[in-house]
Every structure is written in structure tokens, then in C-alpha cells.
Amino acid sequence: MISGFRASRILTLDPSLSHKENPLGAIEHGCVAFESGRITFVGNIVDYKESRHFPLVPLVTPGLIDAHTHACWVGSRHDEYAIRMAGGDYRDIAARGGGIIASSRAIASATEADIGHTLRARLLRMAALGVTTCEVKSGYGLLPELELKQLRAIANAAADRSLPSIVSTFLALHSIPAGYSRTSYIATVLAETLPAAVGLAQFVDAYVDENAFTIDEARLVASAARANGLGVRLHVGQFADVGGAELAAELGALSADHLEHVLGRGIEALAAAGTAACLLPVASFTLGQSPPPVAALRAARVPLVVASDANPGTAPTESLPLALALAVRLYGLTPEEALIGATRNAASSLGLSDRGMLQIGMRADIVAWDLAHEHALIQPWGTPRTRAVVVEGNAIVNIV
Ligand code: NIG
Ligand code: FE
What we know:
CATH topology of the largest domain: TIM Barrel
Strand order of the largest sheet: 5-6-7-8-9-10-11-12
Number of helices: 15
Shape: globular
Largest sheet: 8 strands, parallel
Low-confidence stretches: none
Order of helices and strands: EEEEEHHHHEHEHEHEHEHEHHEHHHEHEE
Number of strands: 15
CATH class of the largest domain: Alpha Beta
Structural class: alpha/beta
Bound molecules: N-(iminomethyl)-L-glutamic acid, fe (iii) ion
Mean pLDDT: 97
């Protein structure tokens, strides 16, 4: 069955329709049609006669793509925010039993079904905010069996066509669990967790920073993962530049994420390797940090991606539109850069060439908004403003 939308304004994000005055490839009085999960027409209403049957909405965009989330978490870490507001840092939080280890305890005591249920509910709330593809990391299990419990819950959600499409990432190095030395933990990840994660995840990730994992530790695990066919994305430079951006470039990572702390040589390495910079403004807002060097990244033509970082500690949100609003307000991205960073560039950073723009033959991942213009979309309004969210031709949110 052919379905579609008519809209006062359609943003195609198609580079062949984009130019200086129209950076998002917008079509006024447009129409998008789809059949069997693929887009069959994008253009002017007058060029598509059957369009009079389609709902008329103010604004249509490609589905938003959240390229960095820790959405597979359970429990609550609300107490940490108060500690932070009182001036505490991660050491104070850890001293009170909080942080990544607290999420790890919660994963240990939840069943796989509980984890799946929580993830499903969260993904549906993200969908209501316009997300049609979501990257989801493990990284709260830490121990082999618990990481795999998370990865299986993510794989189950990925098979559910009533949810956003999922890209699964094995966050191999996030924190060292009790009972392990650094060396014994890395050895366990390499010998046990990674081989079992290979069939479940598409990417590997590691938290490369001071007080986290070193360049050498991350190189060892990420190279082994890459040799097993996984793509690489890395947390780098959230607190200090320890050379993580250069490592991401060396490993051919599709994205280097955070980058509040990155020097010129790291930026040059990312540009030369074509590695995207995934900016996570909710995390730096929560931590009260200064923005990444956006002007230098832009000047070096590093592709910019914006993601939510949804997690219970440093980015307690499920909202990619909120991240876009903060990317504009706090990081100085233009609204157009922010939107490209949550659609076309986000798709490339996940290795997905079938989405991120509205073009004939692409997946029908489409959002109809009750907002008149994309500049309203990146204002910090905070409530869902979608009228329909379509994933591969299926309306998973439908309030048209
Ligand atoms: O992306 N930096 C490391 N990991 C997460 C935080 C995870 C957590 O606190 O649970 C991040 O900010
Ligand atoms: Fe993160």
C-alpha cells in the first residue's frame, strides 16, 4: 500500500538539492510517498496526484538518528545529580557506591526480560521524540555474562519492528569491576566477552580517558574487535586529551565521541581519517564543562554528529531534540548543522547508507512534526512534537 505525507515544508537533507540558501534541501508544499518500507516519491505536491489522500502536516523530516546512547540501563541514579550539584565529582559519587558500578549492580540483579522491558519502553519514548534509529551500547554489565545479558536484550529489541531501528555496540571497556586487575580484566574481555559479543553487536566502543582506559588498552581490544568484523567508535577526550582522537583515526573508527578535550593534532587526525566527531552536549551541560573546539572541528571539515548520550549518570535524558537544542545554544552549531548531525551525518557515522535523508529508494524513516519550521525543532521546548513517526514504512507513533 502506498502511504505518505503532504507538508508545508519537507526537509530532504538530500545533498543534491542543498545549496547555500537551502542547506537542508527543503521543498515547500512537498509530498513524500512510500511503499514496502522504501521512499517512492519526494517532491512537489503538484507533481504527485494521489497525494490528496495523504495527511497534511506542517513539517516533515527524515527520522532522527541517535548515534550514541547508553539506553540499555536499569535502576535509578538520581542521587548522583544532587552530589554533583553540591560540588562533588565522580570520586565522591564512587565513594558513595554510585557511578557506572551502581548501574552494573542494577544489571546484575535484573532479569534479561526486565532489562528488555525497560529498554523497549525507553525506545518508545525516544521514538515519540522523533528517533527512528538508535545506537545502543552495553557497558553496564562489565562481567562477561552480564555484558552478554545486555547485548541479548538489545538484540531482542532490535528484532521488534514496533521500535526504532537499533544499532548495537559492545562497550567493551567502560569500568573495571571488583575482583579484577587492569590486566586480568582486559584479558577476560579479549578471551571471553568479545568472542561472544561478535554475533550480537555491530560496533565496539571503549572509554579512553584519564581515570578510564589507556590508549594501549583500547587499541588492544578495538583491534581484536575489528579483526572480528566489528566497527569501531570510541569515547575520547571527555575529561582530558590522552590521544584518543588519534587512536580513533588510527583504528579507522567511524566516530570519536565527546571531544571536550582535543588538541589540533587530534582534530587533524580525525579529518584525515574521515572519522566523525560525535558531540554530546547534554553530558557537558550536566557536568558543567566547556564546549568542544567546534570552530576548529568545523574548519578542519570533520563531520559533526550530535547525539543524546542517554545514560543515568552524565546525560539523564532520552531526548535527542534536547541535545540538538543544547548543541545550538551551548556549542554554537547552526540549527542546520545540528539537524544534519542527527540525520545524514549520524547515518554515515553508523555506517548506514540507506537512511538519514529523504530520497527515492531510501528507507521510509520519516517524522511528521506539528512545528512549522526546523528552527522551532531545535528550541529547548522539551515535549514531544511529533505527529507521526515512521520506521521502514511502519508508523510506530501515529497521532496524525
Ligand atoms: O558517555 N564516559 C563514560 N560513559 C558515559 C557515562 C556513563 C555513566 O555515568 O553511566 C558517558 O558520559
Ligand atoms: Fe557515552
